[in-house]
Amino acid sequence: MLSALRLRRQAPELMPTDSHTSTRAEKIAVFLPSLEGGGAERSMLNLAKGFLAKGRKVDLVLCQAKGAYLDNIPAGATMIELPATGSLRARWIAASGNLGDFFALLRPVLLAKKVSPEVARIRSLQRYIADSHPDVILCALPYANLCAIWAKQMSSSHVPVVVSERIALSTYCAAPSNFRKWRWRYLPDLVRRGYAKADCVIAVSADVANDLITTIGLPRGSVTAVHNPVVDDTLRARAQQALEHTWFTPGAAPVILAVGRLTEQKDFATLIRAFAVVRADREARLIILGEGRLRDDLEQLACTLGIQADVCMPGFVENPFQYMARAAALVLSSAYEGLPGVLIQAMACGCPVISTDCPGGSREILDDGRYGTLVGIGDADEMAKAILEELDSPTPKEILTGRAEVFSVDRAVGNYLTLLDTVVTQAAGRK
Length: 431
Prior knowledge:
Rossmann fold, 8-stranded parallel beta sheet, alpha/beta, globular
Protein backbone atom coordinates (compact mmCIF):
# COMPACT_ATOMS: atom_id res chain seq x y z
CA MET A 1 0.00 0.00 0.00
CA LEU A 2 1.19 3.50 -0.78
CA SER A 3 2.88 5.22 2.10
CA ALA A 4 1.93 8.89 1.90
CA LEU A 5 3.87 11.58 3.72
CA ARG A 6 3.26 15.30 3.28
CA LEU A 7 5.94 17.58 4.65
CA ARG A 8 4.00 20.51 6.08
CA ARG A 9 5.88 20.92 9.35
CA GLN A 10 8.35 23.65 10.12
CA ALA A 11 11.94 22.47 9.94
CA PRO A 12 14.88 23.92 11.84
CA GLU A 13 17.44 26.04 10.06
CA LEU A 14 19.51 23.90 7.75
CA MET A 15 23.02 22.85 8.58
CA PRO A 16 25.41 21.37 6.02
CA THR A 17 24.77 17.66 6.43
CA ASP A 18 25.02 14.52 4.36
CA SER A 19 25.10 11.24 6.20
CA HIS A 20 24.71 8.74 3.38
CA THR A 21 27.82 6.89 2.27
CA SER A 22 26.26 4.41 -0.16
CA THR A 23 28.08 3.49 -3.36
CA ARG A 24 24.82 2.30 -4.86
CA ALA A 25 21.56 4.13 -5.41
CA GLU A 26 19.65 2.38 -2.63
CA LYS A 27 17.29 5.30 -1.97
CA ILE A 28 16.20 7.25 -5.04
CA ALA A 29 14.30 10.52 -4.84
CA VAL A 30 12.21 11.13 -7.97
CA PHE A 31 11.37 14.83 -8.10
CA LEU A 32 8.52 16.15 -10.27
CA PRO A 33 6.31 19.26 -10.34
CA SER A 34 3.12 17.13 -10.18
CA LEU A 35 1.50 14.06 -11.71
CA GLU A 36 -0.47 15.87 -14.39
CA GLY A 37 -1.14 13.62 -17.37
CA GLY A 38 1.95 13.83 -19.57
CA GLY A 39 4.64 11.61 -21.04
CA ALA A 40 7.30 12.71 -18.55
CA GLU A 41 5.14 11.85 -15.55
CA ARG A 42 4.15 8.47 -16.98
CA SER A 43 7.79 7.62 -17.73
CA MET A 44 9.01 8.58 -14.27
CA LEU A 45 6.29 6.48 -12.63
CA ASN A 46 7.35 3.53 -14.80
CA LEU A 47 10.93 4.04 -13.65
CA ALA A 48 9.86 4.29 -10.00
CA LYS A 49 7.94 1.02 -10.30
CA GLY A 50 10.97 -0.62 -11.91
CA PHE A 51 13.34 0.67 -9.23
CA LEU A 52 11.11 -0.76 -6.51
CA ALA A 53 10.97 -4.12 -8.30
CA LYS A 54 14.80 -4.17 -8.21
CA GLY A 55 14.80 -3.71 -4.44
CA ARG A 56 15.54 0.02 -4.32
CA LYS A 57 13.65 2.51 -2.16
CA VAL A 58 11.81 5.34 -3.88
CA ASP A 59 10.62 8.70 -2.57
CA LEU A 60 8.28 10.35 -5.06
CA VAL A 61 8.81 14.03 -4.23
CA LEU A 62 6.14 16.33 -5.69
CA CYS A 63 5.70 20.07 -5.69
CA GLN A 64 1.95 19.50 -5.90
CA ALA A 65 0.19 16.19 -5.23
CA LYS A 66 -2.27 16.50 -8.09
CA GLY A 67 -2.84 15.15 -11.57
CA ALA A 68 -4.33 12.32 -13.56
CA TYR A 69 -1.60 9.88 -12.54
CA LEU A 70 -1.99 10.16 -8.76
CA ASP A 71 -3.72 6.78 -8.72
CA ASN A 72 -0.79 5.23 -10.59
CA ILE A 73 1.83 5.80 -7.89
CA PRO A 74 3.43 2.34 -7.48
CA ALA A 75 2.93 0.38 -4.28
CA GLY A 76 5.93 0.76 -2.00
CA ALA A 77 6.79 4.32 -3.03
CA THR A 78 6.71 7.08 -0.43
CA MET A 79 4.90 10.12 -1.78
CA ILE A 80 6.07 13.45 -0.39
CA GLU A 81 4.35 16.74 -1.17
CA LEU A 82 6.55 19.75 -0.56
CA PRO A 83 5.06 22.91 0.98
CA ALA A 84 5.41 26.18 -0.92
CA THR A 85 7.20 29.34 0.12
CA GLY A 86 5.55 32.72 -0.53
CA SER A 87 6.20 34.31 -3.90
CA LEU A 88 8.56 37.12 -2.83
CA ARG A 89 10.54 34.93 -0.45
CA ALA A 90 10.83 32.17 -3.07
CA ARG A 91 12.31 34.62 -5.56
CA TRP A 92 14.73 35.91 -2.95
CA ILE A 93 15.84 32.36 -2.13
CA ALA A 94 16.48 31.63 -5.81
CA ALA A 95 18.45 34.85 -6.25
CA SER A 96 20.52 34.59 -3.05
CA GLY A 97 21.58 31.06 -3.89
CA ASN A 98 22.62 31.94 -7.45
CA LEU A 99 24.25 35.35 -7.30
CA GLY A 100 26.62 34.42 -10.11
CA ASP A 101 23.65 33.78 -12.40
CA PHE A 102 21.59 36.74 -11.20
CA PHE A 103 21.04 38.30 -14.62
CA ALA A 104 20.14 34.94 -16.19
CA LEU A 105 17.55 34.50 -13.42
CA LEU A 106 16.17 38.01 -13.74
CA ARG A 107 13.48 37.62 -16.39
CA PRO A 108 12.50 33.92 -16.28
CA VAL A 109 12.41 33.67 -12.46
CA LEU A 110 12.77 36.92 -10.50
CA LEU A 111 10.54 39.16 -12.64
CA ALA A 112 8.20 36.47 -13.98
CA LYS A 113 4.50 37.27 -13.61
CA LYS A 114 4.01 34.22 -11.39
CA VAL A 115 6.53 32.25 -9.38
CA SER A 116 6.64 28.67 -10.63
CA PRO A 117 5.57 25.82 -8.31
CA GLU A 118 9.11 24.44 -8.48
CA VAL A 119 10.81 27.72 -7.47
CA ALA A 120 8.34 28.02 -4.60
CA ARG A 121 9.62 24.67 -3.25
CA ILE A 122 13.39 25.25 -3.28
CA ARG A 123 13.53 25.75 0.50
CA SER A 124 11.34 22.73 1.29
CA LEU A 125 13.38 20.59 -1.12
CA GLN A 126 16.48 21.63 0.83
CA ARG A 127 14.78 20.45 3.99
CA TYR A 128 13.83 17.17 2.36
CA ILE A 129 17.47 16.58 1.35
CA ALA A 130 18.70 17.37 4.87
CA ASP A 131 16.06 15.24 6.61
CA SER A 132 15.72 12.25 4.29
CA HIS A 133 19.25 11.73 2.92
CA PRO A 134 18.47 10.20 -0.48
CA ASP A 135 21.39 8.59 -2.29
CA VAL A 136 20.50 10.37 -5.53
CA ILE A 137 17.88 12.77 -6.88
CA LEU A 138 16.43 12.02 -10.30
CA CYS A 139 14.28 14.80 -11.72
CA ALA A 140 12.49 15.71 -14.91
CA LEU A 141 11.23 18.88 -16.63
CA PRO A 142 13.37 22.04 -16.81
CA TYR A 143 12.35 24.01 -13.75
CA ALA A 144 12.28 20.93 -11.51
CA ASN A 145 15.76 20.08 -12.81
CA LEU A 146 17.06 23.57 -12.06
CA CYS A 147 15.46 23.77 -8.62
CA ALA A 148 16.92 20.41 -7.61
CA ILE A 149 20.38 21.66 -8.58
CA TRP A 150 19.86 24.92 -6.67
CA ALA A 151 18.48 23.16 -3.58
CA LYS A 152 21.50 20.88 -3.47
CA GLN A 153 24.06 23.68 -3.75
CA MET A 154 22.24 25.77 -1.14
CA SER A 155 22.18 22.87 1.33
CA SER A 156 25.90 22.03 0.91
CA SER A 157 24.86 18.42 0.39
CA HIS A 158 26.90 15.91 -1.60
CA VAL A 159 23.81 14.13 -2.90
CA PRO A 160 24.16 13.76 -6.68
CA VAL A 161 21.48 15.32 -8.87
CA VAL A 162 20.63 13.66 -12.18
CA VAL A 163 18.51 15.82 -14.46
CA SER A 164 16.59 14.53 -17.47
CA GLU A 165 15.48 16.56 -20.46
CA ARG A 166 12.38 15.29 -22.21
CA ILE A 167 12.05 17.52 -25.27
CA ALA A 168 13.98 19.43 -27.93
CA LEU A 169 14.24 22.39 -25.58
CA SER A 170 15.42 25.07 -28.02
CA THR A 171 12.46 24.38 -30.31
CA TYR A 172 10.04 24.28 -27.39
CA CYS A 173 11.20 27.64 -26.02
CA ALA A 174 11.08 29.24 -29.48
CA ALA A 175 7.51 28.07 -30.20
CA PRO A 176 5.21 31.13 -30.53
CA SER A 177 2.97 30.12 -27.61
CA ASN A 178 6.00 29.81 -25.31
CA PHE A 179 8.27 32.56 -26.66
CA ARG A 180 5.80 35.20 -25.49
CA LYS A 181 6.38 34.10 -21.90
CA TRP A 182 9.58 35.14 -20.15
CA ARG A 183 9.50 31.85 -18.22
CA TRP A 184 10.31 30.01 -21.45
CA ARG A 185 11.89 32.63 -23.71
CA TYR A 186 14.86 33.13 -21.42
CA LEU A 187 15.09 29.55 -20.15
CA PRO A 188 17.86 28.24 -22.50
CA ASP A 189 20.59 30.42 -20.94
CA LEU A 190 19.46 29.39 -17.47
CA VAL A 191 19.54 25.72 -18.50
CA ARG A 192 23.03 26.10 -19.96
CA ARG A 193 24.31 27.55 -16.70
CA GLY A 194 22.31 25.31 -14.38
CA TYR A 195 22.67 21.90 -16.02
CA ALA A 196 26.45 22.33 -16.06
CA LYS A 197 26.26 21.96 -12.25
CA ALA A 198 24.32 18.68 -12.35
CA ASP A 199 26.12 15.41 -11.68
CA CYS A 200 24.63 13.93 -14.84
CA VAL A 201 22.39 15.14 -17.66
CA ILE A 202 20.14 12.60 -19.37
CA ALA A 203 18.35 13.17 -22.67
CA VAL A 204 15.54 10.86 -23.72
CA SER A 205 16.78 10.62 -27.30
CA ALA A 206 19.91 11.28 -29.32
CA ASP A 207 18.19 14.23 -30.98
CA VAL A 208 17.37 15.85 -27.62
CA ALA A 209 20.97 15.25 -26.51
CA ASN A 210 22.28 16.90 -29.67
CA ASP A 211 19.93 19.86 -29.12
CA LEU A 212 21.29 20.39 -25.60
CA ILE A 213 24.84 20.34 -26.94
CA THR A 214 24.59 22.26 -30.21
CA THR A 215 21.80 24.73 -29.43
CA ILE A 216 21.69 25.14 -25.66
CA GLY A 217 25.47 25.00 -25.37
CA LEU A 218 26.21 22.16 -22.93
CA PRO A 219 29.68 20.62 -23.34
CA ARG A 220 29.89 17.70 -25.75
CA GLY A 221 30.20 14.50 -23.76
CA SER A 222 28.25 15.92 -20.81
CA VAL A 223 24.89 14.51 -21.94
CA THR A 224 23.89 10.84 -21.99
CA ALA A 225 20.98 9.59 -24.09
CA VAL A 226 18.81 7.02 -22.28
CA HIS A 227 15.46 5.95 -23.70
CA ASN A 228 12.26 6.19 -21.69
CA PRO A 229 10.64 3.09 -20.17
CA VAL A 230 7.52 2.46 -22.23
CA VAL A 231 6.64 -1.17 -22.98
CA ASP A 232 5.78 -3.75 -20.33
CA ASP A 233 3.26 -6.49 -19.55
CA THR A 234 0.86 -3.95 -18.06
CA LEU A 235 0.66 -2.06 -21.35
CA ARG A 236 0.06 -5.29 -23.27
CA ALA A 237 -2.65 -6.43 -20.85
CA ARG A 238 -4.44 -3.08 -20.95
CA ALA A 239 -4.37 -3.13 -24.75
CA GLN A 240 -6.40 -6.36 -24.65
CA GLN A 241 -9.15 -4.97 -22.42
CA ALA A 242 -12.56 -4.74 -24.04
CA LEU A 243 -13.44 -1.41 -25.66
CA GLU A 244 -17.05 -0.38 -25.98
CA HIS A 245 -17.14 2.07 -28.86
CA THR A 246 -19.42 1.86 -31.87
CA TRP A 247 -16.62 2.89 -34.22
CA PHE A 248 -14.72 -0.33 -33.51
CA THR A 249 -17.43 -2.85 -34.30
CA PRO A 250 -16.72 -5.52 -36.98
CA GLY A 251 -17.01 -4.11 -40.48
CA ALA A 252 -16.82 -0.47 -39.34
CA ALA A 253 -14.79 2.13 -41.21
CA PRO A 254 -11.07 2.27 -40.34
CA VAL A 255 -10.20 4.57 -37.46
CA ILE A 256 -7.21 6.92 -37.52
CA LEU A 257 -6.00 7.68 -33.99
CA ALA A 258 -4.03 10.51 -32.38
CA VAL A 259 -3.13 10.98 -28.72
CA GLY A 260 -1.88 14.09 -26.94
CA ARG A 261 -2.74 17.40 -25.35
CA LEU A 262 -4.75 19.75 -27.51
CA THR A 263 -1.96 22.33 -27.81
CA GLU A 264 -0.01 24.03 -30.59
CA GLN A 265 2.86 21.56 -30.14
CA LYS A 266 0.76 18.59 -31.27
CA ASP A 267 -0.55 20.45 -34.37
CA PHE A 268 -3.77 18.46 -34.59
CA ALA A 269 -5.07 21.11 -37.01
CA THR A 270 -2.77 19.68 -39.69
CA LEU A 271 -4.00 16.18 -38.88
CA ILE A 272 -7.64 17.24 -39.20
CA ARG A 273 -6.90 18.82 -42.59
CA ALA A 274 -5.10 15.65 -43.66
CA PHE A 275 -8.03 13.54 -42.50
CA ALA A 276 -10.40 15.66 -44.58
CA VAL A 277 -8.36 14.67 -47.65
CA VAL A 278 -8.49 11.00 -46.60
CA ARG A 279 -12.23 11.22 -45.95
CA ALA A 280 -12.80 12.63 -49.43
CA ASP A 281 -11.13 9.50 -50.83
CA ARG A 282 -12.85 6.86 -48.68
CA GLU A 283 -14.89 6.18 -45.58
CA ALA A 284 -12.80 6.62 -42.44
CA ARG A 285 -12.97 8.12 -38.95
CA LEU A 286 -10.63 10.09 -36.71
CA ILE A 287 -10.33 9.92 -32.91
CA ILE A 288 -8.12 12.35 -30.99
CA LEU A 289 -7.56 11.41 -27.34
CA GLY A 290 -6.54 14.26 -25.06
CA GLU A 291 -7.66 17.56 -23.64
CA GLY A 292 -6.44 21.13 -23.92
CA ARG A 293 -7.09 24.75 -24.65
CA LEU A 294 -7.44 24.30 -28.42
CA ARG A 295 -10.49 22.03 -28.23
CA ASP A 296 -12.92 24.67 -29.48
CA ASP A 297 -10.64 25.67 -32.36
CA LEU A 298 -10.18 22.07 -33.48
CA GLU A 299 -13.88 21.28 -33.27
CA GLN A 300 -14.63 24.40 -35.31
CA LEU A 301 -12.06 23.37 -37.94
CA ALA A 302 -13.71 19.95 -38.28
CA CYS A 303 -17.07 21.67 -38.76
CA THR A 304 -15.66 24.09 -41.34
CA LEU A 305 -14.25 21.13 -43.32
CA GLY A 306 -17.56 19.29 -43.06
CA ILE A 307 -16.12 16.21 -41.34
CA GLN A 308 -17.40 16.75 -37.81
CA ALA A 309 -19.55 13.59 -37.91
CA ASP A 310 -16.40 11.50 -38.45
CA VAL A 311 -14.18 13.22 -35.86
CA CYS A 312 -14.42 12.23 -32.18
CA MET A 313 -12.54 14.02 -29.38
CA PRO A 314 -13.47 12.24 -26.11
CA GLY A 315 -10.85 14.00 -24.00
CA PHE A 316 -8.33 12.34 -21.68
CA VAL A 317 -8.87 8.60 -21.36
CA GLU A 318 -7.32 6.37 -18.72
CA ASN A 319 -6.50 3.57 -21.16
CA PRO A 320 -5.46 4.73 -24.64
CA PHE A 321 -3.94 1.33 -25.43
CA GLN A 322 -7.41 -0.16 -26.05
CA TYR A 323 -7.77 2.30 -28.91
CA MET A 324 -4.25 1.73 -30.23
CA ALA A 325 -4.81 -2.03 -30.44
CA ARG A 326 -7.87 -1.49 -32.63
CA ALA A 327 -7.00 1.57 -34.74
CA ALA A 328 -5.96 1.28 -38.38
CA ALA A 329 -3.10 3.73 -37.80
CA LEU A 330 -1.80 6.24 -35.28
CA VAL A 331 -0.60 9.63 -36.48
CA LEU A 332 1.81 11.89 -34.59
CA SER A 333 1.45 15.38 -36.11
CA SER A 334 3.72 17.26 -33.66
CA ALA A 335 5.90 20.26 -34.42
CA TYR A 336 8.50 19.02 -31.90
CA GLU A 337 8.90 16.20 -29.37
CA GLY A 338 11.46 14.46 -27.18
CA LEU A 339 10.90 10.72 -27.40
CA PRO A 340 7.19 10.49 -28.29
CA GLY A 341 5.87 7.61 -26.23
CA VAL A 342 2.64 7.36 -28.20
CA LEU A 343 4.57 6.09 -31.23
CA ILE A 344 6.21 3.36 -29.16
CA GLN A 345 2.96 2.48 -27.36
CA ALA A 346 1.08 2.18 -30.64
CA MET A 347 3.78 -0.05 -32.13
CA ALA A 348 3.69 -2.24 -29.02
CA CYS A 349 -0.05 -2.63 -29.62
CA GLY A 350 0.60 -3.63 -33.25
CA CYS A 351 -0.78 -0.35 -34.62
CA PRO A 352 0.93 1.13 -37.73
CA VAL A 353 2.32 4.63 -37.22
CA ILE A 354 2.89 7.80 -39.22
CA SER A 355 4.86 10.71 -37.77
CA THR A 356 6.12 14.14 -38.64
CA ASP A 357 9.89 14.25 -38.98
CA CYS A 358 10.00 16.75 -36.13
CA PRO A 359 12.80 17.74 -33.75
CA GLY A 360 12.91 15.01 -31.13
CA GLY A 361 13.01 11.24 -31.30
CA SER A 362 10.49 10.33 -34.02
CA ARG A 363 13.12 9.48 -36.62
CA GLU A 364 15.09 7.58 -33.98
CA ILE A 365 12.06 5.48 -32.96
CA LEU A 366 11.13 4.71 -36.56
CA ASP A 367 14.76 4.04 -37.57
CA ASP A 368 14.78 6.59 -40.39
CA GLY A 369 11.37 5.44 -41.64
CA ARG A 370 11.94 1.68 -41.53
CA TYR A 371 9.09 1.12 -39.04
CA GLY A 372 6.71 3.90 -40.06
CA THR A 373 6.35 6.79 -42.48
CA LEU A 374 7.93 10.16 -41.73
CA VAL A 375 6.28 13.27 -43.21
CA GLY A 376 6.99 16.98 -43.23
CA ILE A 377 5.85 19.18 -40.35
CA GLY A 378 2.58 20.95 -41.18
CA ASP A 379 2.22 19.18 -44.55
CA ALA A 380 -1.40 17.97 -44.61
CA ASP A 381 -1.23 16.59 -48.16
CA GLU A 382 1.87 14.48 -47.46
CA MET A 383 0.29 13.25 -44.22
CA ALA A 384 -2.92 12.30 -46.02
CA LYS A 385 -0.95 10.39 -48.66
CA ALA A 386 0.93 8.48 -45.94
CA ILE A 387 -2.33 7.60 -44.16
CA LEU A 388 -3.90 6.29 -47.36
CA GLU A 389 -0.80 4.21 -48.16
CA GLU A 390 -0.82 2.73 -44.66
CA LEU A 391 -4.52 1.88 -44.94
CA ASP A 392 -3.86 0.14 -48.28
CA SER A 393 -0.73 -1.70 -47.14
CA PRO A 394 -0.38 -1.80 -43.33
CA THR A 395 2.95 -2.62 -41.70
CA PRO A 396 2.88 -6.18 -40.26
CA LYS A 397 2.18 -6.23 -36.53
CA GLU A 398 5.12 -8.48 -35.67
CA ILE A 399 7.55 -5.97 -37.15
CA LEU A 400 6.04 -3.17 -35.07
CA THR A 401 5.91 -5.10 -31.78
CA GLY A 402 9.48 -6.31 -32.27
CA ARG A 403 10.74 -2.74 -32.69
CA ALA A 404 8.80 -1.57 -29.63
CA GLU A 405 10.74 -3.98 -27.40
CA VAL A 406 13.81 -1.77 -27.83
CA PHE A 407 11.95 0.65 -25.53
CA SER A 408 10.95 -1.86 -22.84
CA VAL A 409 10.62 -0.85 -19.19
CA ASP A 410 13.09 -3.56 -18.13
CA ARG A 411 15.79 -2.30 -20.49
CA ALA A 412 15.28 1.34 -19.48
CA VAL A 413 15.25 0.57 -15.74
CA GLY A 414 18.49 -1.39 -16.10
CA ASN A 415 20.14 1.45 -18.03
CA TYR A 416 18.97 4.04 -15.48
CA LEU A 417 20.14 2.02 -12.47
CA THR A 418 23.55 1.43 -14.04
CA LEU A 419 23.89 5.19 -14.57
CA LEU A 420 22.54 6.15 -11.12
CA ASP A 421 24.82 3.64 -9.37
CA THR A 422 27.80 5.03 -11.26
CA VAL A 423 26.91 8.60 -10.31
CA VAL A 424 26.49 7.65 -6.63
CA THR A 425 29.83 5.83 -6.62
CA GLN A 426 31.58 8.81 -8.19
CA ALA A 427 29.99 11.18 -5.67
CA ALA A 428 31.14 8.98 -2.78
CA GLY A 429 34.67 9.04 -4.17
CA ARG A 430 34.70 12.84 -4.18
CA LYS A 431 33.85 13.19 -0.48
